[in-house]
Write the structure tokens for this entry.
Amino acid sequence: MRTALIWIVSIALVWAVDEIKVVYDLTSGDIKKFETRLLSGIPAMKRHYEAQLKSVEVAVIIHGDAYKFFLKELSGTPYAKDAAFVAKHAELAKRIEALAQSYEVTFAVCSVGTKSRQLDPANFHDVVFIPSASIGLVEYQSQGFGYLPAH
């Protein structure tokens, strides 16, 4: 009887959650992974949970090789030499903007990495800057965000 009661209460708590919070740890500079995991994955996840009448809050911590996706201008950066990326840059920028506006995704950029790569903060699209990726991940997770790697 006691086990059954615990099971019923657990199920009720799961169904009672009306807000899903997810923080992506984005380090990959791979275009295909970026498109699949974030540009396609986030809208699919949001549709899934919103169909269950749950709100979804998404944040993406940007560091590692992922900075390039969020730059306004590639000239003068290490990414300007990647012809395949340069060819897709404008399209990816539009899709990122759509994620930010339509799906209210927060993009948080690690300041330590921008400095070490000598990337101008003014050259980034609409992002927030955080002291470091580690600090950002800890803060989001302490606010109840589930962790998803996007490496």
About this structure: The domain at 18-150 is CATH 3.40.1260.10 (Hypothetical Protein Ychn; Chain: A,). The two ends are 45 Å apart (CA to CA). The chain has five helices and five strands.
